[in-house]
Structure prediction request, 441 residues.
Amino acid sequence: MEEPFDCIIVGGGIAGLSAAMTLARGGARFLLIERGEFCGAKNVSGGVLWGTDLQRLVPGYADDPDAGFERFVNHRRLTFLDDDSAFSVDFKSTRFDEKPYGGVTVLRAVFDAWLAGKVQQAIDESPYPDESFLATDVLVEEVLMEDGRAVGIRAGDEEFRANCVLLAEGVNNLLTRQVGLENPFVDADHVAVGVKEVLRMDVDRLADRFQLCGRSGLTNEFVGAATKGVEGGGFLYTNRDSLSVGLVIGMKDLREKGGTPYDLLNHFKAHPAIRDMIQGAETVEYSAHVVSTGDIRGLPKELYGDGVLIAGEAAHLLMNAGKAIQGMDYAMRSGMLAAETVLEARKAGDFSSAMMSNYRKALDASYIMHDMRSFQDAVHLLHSEPMFSNVPNVLCDFGRQFFAVRSEPTPKALSMMHAAVKRHASYWDLVKLGIKAARAL
Ligand SMILES: Cc1cc2nc3c(=O)[nH]c(=O)nc-3n(C[C@H](O)[C@H](O)[C@H](O)COP(=O)(O)OP(=O)(O)OC[C@H]3O[C@@H](n4cnc5c(N)ncnc54)[C@H](O)[C@@H]3O)c2cc1C
Prediction:
């Protein structure tokens, strides 16, 4: 019988590739299996890869003109919309030009394929250049279990054995359910649907319209009329010569209020603020994908078992507390941590559940679980009705009064705010919301 791999990784998204890179550098023998034709073929993201872990994974990537990212983010904007107005909080800083970048926009078909190339390079330079593999266009159908322990996988008629299996299969975590670490049905509260278009735009027009310089980029999130009263929000991110424009919509609320994701996306694109930004751009790609909401109650029962680990969004590791969607950086870090546990297990010759629990400990000590715990109230607040109805309406109403100059006596800002609140909310509701927001953030 052939010697088993140290690890089989299911999924060649960011979690899987980050784990693979760590295993290759740590001198392990592994097999990564991706069902897409190539890594990135099946993936959808807004997407901004936040944080600085990419620099750890691919040192010096930002100096490589062919690196797989689109633009680094030095300009951020949060916009509240009602039907005809847009009220924004805007922040730009040259300090964000400094490396390592704290956020880069990515197109996953490009980025994941580039990262897979870097992993292959690491395999070629590892002690096992001929015994570790990236296999694409293969669907893993089953995790092989013996006496409650994962011992390999089945893909079609073929079986491959390993000392452990790392599930990095993304949010549709069927294998995580098969091994019993996730319930068969996921609560609709814990998932949202994301829809996105990539709109091609002439690079000079893009730079002029969004005040971009070199490879700098803008990210813009939207709340309010973006989603026609359905829970959720919108985004617009600048790529090299395109825009990523989309919505993340609460599935439960969409089901209750009716409508389809693409209707909502068309509605969003037709809003005057968005229409002016995307004018002249041509849709070249449309995609939709489920995405976790960041509710910590959505995490699987456990993130490890005998011979098995779960990383990335398969474990529902994601944060969306209004400031940013952080799914890719969580996938990257959790993939790296899971692989570090595999390397420890390999050294000790012990792939038991007790050894795998070190992954959970490392995750608990990391910024991922720290932030997911600290900002749960913000996650829930963001998904509450006032955040996507009353608050944007009040702010836009106030903005219309405050920024208007008429040839008549001007009221003080406080009385403008008072009038806006009276029209769209109650003081008491807003005070309660303000206190909650202050505590949550
Ligand atoms: C519209 C939208 C916008 C988003 N915006 C952002 C953003 O701006 N920033 C951010 O950080 N995150 C964002 N996210 C979330 C982010 O995309 C995910 O959290 C991230 O991709 C998770 O990475 P992953 O590696 O865990 O899973 P994935 O990227 O989903 O990768 C899983 C991989 O496993 C493969 N696979 C699955 N099952 C099998 C199988 N049985 N056999 C073989 N292969 C398999 C899939 O083909 C896939 O390639 C967004 C998501 C959506 C939908």
Notes: The mean pLDDT is 94. The longest helix spans residues 328-348. Residues 389-440 form one domain.
